[in-house]
Design brief:
554 residues; alpha/beta; Rossmann fold; 6-stranded parallel beta sheet; 37% helix
């Protein structure tokens, strides 16, 4: 007897199972009903989390990829579904996060007719994703999906978009998957390691900079131990503060927005910078002003898994394409027969001083709020955020002590933090998860509180409400003092909003009231109840460094 063909949709799902996918974040659509039906048979292996907006689904998948190192998977419908989700693809690209997005698509026979919700996904996502494709031969389903995994994971990690024509999903899906994808990893040539050793031995003021994705626990432990043995000052790139414990004796701070001026001076003074995994893009280099191409040609050793990133902006002294973890493990074997402990000690003391609470105006001191979180939360608690000036307080004053504790978009995407928190809590339910969100930031994904309630996801969101789009207001006051337009916000009663979903909500208007309120939120979250702390702050303290009065020249 001839075996009954297995459909394309079922082969796709079989390939997800074979590659260890345990969660799919989605908004359902009629264009991929066959895939949803196939997923219904493997719910013991893959949890399907239904979101309320495609941007939320894509951001949850991106956060999953960041947290686990495995491709996050999201599924959306054609046209508006895919374009809504594009923000998550952009974040995954900027953040070097493995992600695969499957998009329902019109039937192949209707392509080019301007059919209902028709989009050319190769064209739309060609510049956002590492690879954007459309399944055209159903018998090659496993081949295409396996290539998606390989592409997302190899080299500089990133997102892949696969469009699924509706009519093909029912056809013969071809051969079954044989084994999971094992991504290729490039290692350093021993001769290159020897060159690095020679340069380091000659350096008087070296600096180690780590960034990027794909790091293993073994590699970060090894490179941290190496830095400690040698006394190498160690900085982390923008929104990569959890790669190394911030209490490490060599930790000098992060090269993000609003960095420590003393760290900036240290970078400029360095006569050797060893950068592993960091792209050294706009934010870490302070608008491309921190480094100088002529100087980097004499001082920069740049290691990155993506060959296209080497020499992209900065002319290096030495460069090599290598997996971040393998590169770090190789370099950590170098013993240059000299030490720089006095420099590391000074750099770490500068970080500690910069990350200590400061005086602020208004009834809520955000530096003390963030310090309290560090005191009461366990070391492995996951903190998430989107974009806005509120994040400056978190990044400056929270001291991460474990890997996988920061989920934040280097893309600067608003609305990222809350979906990321839900993804993190669903992925690691034994860990506490706290999202710090501005009022404008939270309202861009607040609808996902319905998702939190539906799945009993006990994540906490602290909504920092100053009634304005803070970052834009700061720049507005700097360039056009006193001429406020399009930045003021009228917000809902956030406590009532949370309660409408069955979540716990509490309002705080003073620093002294925050500990008790946060403790109640933690109690609710521990029982699987979503929780929200509405923290009312003063827009006058627009950032840790400036007030609005100061920006206006007052």
């Amino acid at each position: 007897m001839t075996a009954t063909p297995v459909s394309c949709a079922r082969r796709l799902v079989e390939t997800l199972v074979a590659n260890g996918v345990d969660k799919v974040f989605c908004v359902p659509g009629e264009s991929y009903l066959a895939v949803l039906d196939a997923l219904s048979d493997v719910l013991d292996k893959i949890a399907v989390i239904v979101c309320r907006h495609e941007a939320g689904a894509a951001n949850m998948a991106e956060a999953y990829g960041k947290l686990t190192g495995k491709p996050g998977v999201c599924m959306v419908t054609r046209g508006p579904g895919a374009t809504h989700a594009s923000i998550g693809i952009h974040t995954a690209h900027q953040d070097s996060t493995p992600l695969i997005m499957f998009v329902g698509q019109i039937a192949l026979s209707d392509r080019g007719r301007g059919a209902f919700q028709e989009v050319d996904y190769r064209e739309v996502f060609g510049g956002l994703a590492k690879w954007a494709t459309e399944l055209e031969s159903p018998e090659r389903t496993v081949e295409v999906v396996e290539r998606a995994f390989s592409t997302a994971l190899q080299g500089r990690m990133g997102p892949v978009v696969v469009a699924l024509p509706e009519n093909l999903l029912h056809e013969d899906g071809g051969p079954a998957p044989v084994r999971p994808v094992v991504p290729a990893r490039a290692a350093l040539d021993p001769a290159f390691v020897a060159q690095v050793a020679d340069k380091l031995k000659a350096a008087e003021r070296p600096l180690l900079v780590l960034g990027g994705s794909g790091w293993s626990e073994e590699a970060t432990t090894s490179i941290a131990g190496w830095a400690e043995r040698l006394g190498l000052p160690l900085a982390l790139s923008f929104r990569r503060k959890d790669l190394i414990s911030n209490l490490h004796p060599c930790y000098a701070g992060d090269l993000g927005l609003g960095p420590n001026p003393k760290l900036i001076a240290r970078v400029k003074d360095a006569d050797l910078i060893i950068a592993i995994g960091a792209r050294l893009g706009e934010n870490p280099t302070q608008g491309y002003t921190l480094l100088d191409r002529t100087r980097t040609a004499q001082t920069l050793i740049h290691l990155h898994p993506g060959a296209e990133e080497l020499g992209r902006v900065w002319a290096p002294l030495l460069s090599a394409t290598a997996d971040n973890s393998l590169a770090a493990l190789a370099l950590s074997q170098i013993e240059p027969d000299r030490l720089w402990h006095d420099q590391a000690k000074a750099a770490h003391e500068e970080f500690l001083a910069f990350s200590t609470s400061i005086e602020t105006v208004g009834a809520v001191n955000m530096s003390e709020v963030i310090a309290h979180l560090g005191e009461v939360l366990p070391k492995d608690a996951i903190l998430t955020n989107g974009a806005g000036n509120f994040a400056a307080w978190l990044h400056r004053f929270h001291r991460h002590q474990a890997r996988g504790t920061q989920l934040a978009p280097t893309s600067g995407a608003m609305g990222y933090g809350y979906p990321a928190a839900l993804s993190a809590k669903a992925t690691a339910p034994h860990r506490e998860v706290v999202c710090i969100a501005g009022d404008g930031d939270f309202m861009m994904s607040a609808n996902e509180m319905a998702t939190a309630a539906q799945y009993d996801i006990g994540a906490i969101v602290v909504v920092v409400d100053n009634g304005t789009f803070g970052t834009i207001r700061m720049h507005q006051e700097g360039h056009y003092p006193g001429r406020v337009i399009a930045t003021d916000l009228k917000n809902p009663d956030f406590v009532k909003y949370a309660e409408a979903f069955g979540a716990f909500g509490i309002r705080v208007t003073g620093t002294g009231d925050f500990p008790a309120a946060f403790a109640k939120a933690r109690e609710a979250a521990a029982k699987g109840q979503p929780a929200l702390v509405h923290l009312v702050t003063d827009a006058e303290q627009i950032s840790p460094a400036k007030t609005i009065t100061q920006l206006r020249g007052g």
